[in-house]
Amino acid sequence: MIEDLESASLQERFEHLLALISSTRFLSKQGLGNEVPFFICPFKVSETVEMQKMQARLENRLSQQGVGVLSINLYDLCLDILKENGDWEWLIQTEKTHPKDELLKDMQSMLDVETIVIPEIARRMEMKSFDVLFLSGVGEVFPYIRSHNVLNNLQRIATDQPTVLFFPGEFRYSLEMGASLNLFGKLQDDKYYRAFNIYHCEV
């Protein structure tokens, strides 16, 4: 077993993720105690394109092994919501002239996590039978959507199957500081205590 998988090659990380996520122990949420089955898959921002390819490859291999994946890209989901609600054209037209702080408030209102984004995720979960939920696009929706806010609200609806959040940054835990999601390795998105670093999970 590689001691520090986060710094291992993409192929070694892929093999770990495939073996872990396809395992009965992972899919049946064994060994979690009373914790929610949320797992963070951190990666360097410079690896974004490679990780997108790896995620697609991982979904394909899991499917071949009979593991159903519901993959939700938060950026694509937000685009769908804005277009369906008729806000997209307005946003395009006003983006250049609207003050950035006001635009941010408008987007946070149009894409409120608790009342709009999470219900749409729940709707998509109901439409498809799956064994594991993949969430991506975290970096693209910052700052109008914060990953810790998504995870906090997701606890209400997504505990039957494991959830894997692909996170462009660092997920760190220490006794002194607790757990923190550091987006892009620089911005502390906020503290979130209930997730596991997927590279620290044994197959």
Structure description:
This protein is 42% helix and 20% strand. α1 runs parallel beside α3 (48-64) and α7 (113-127) packs across α8 (147-154). The chain has eight helices and seven strands; from the N terminus they run ααβαβααααβαββββ. The chain is of the alpha/beta class and 203 residues long. β4 and β5 (178-183) form a beta hairpin. Strands 1, 2, 3, 4, 5, 6 and 7 form a seven-stranded mixed sheet that branches. The chain has helices at residues 10-21, 24-27, 48-64, 74-84, 88-94, 100-110, 113-127, 147-154, and strands at 38-43, 69-73, 132-136, 163-174, 178-183, 187-190, 196-197.
Task: Give me some keywords for this one.
20% strand, alpha/beta, 203 residues, seven-stranded mixed sheet, 42% helix, 7 strands
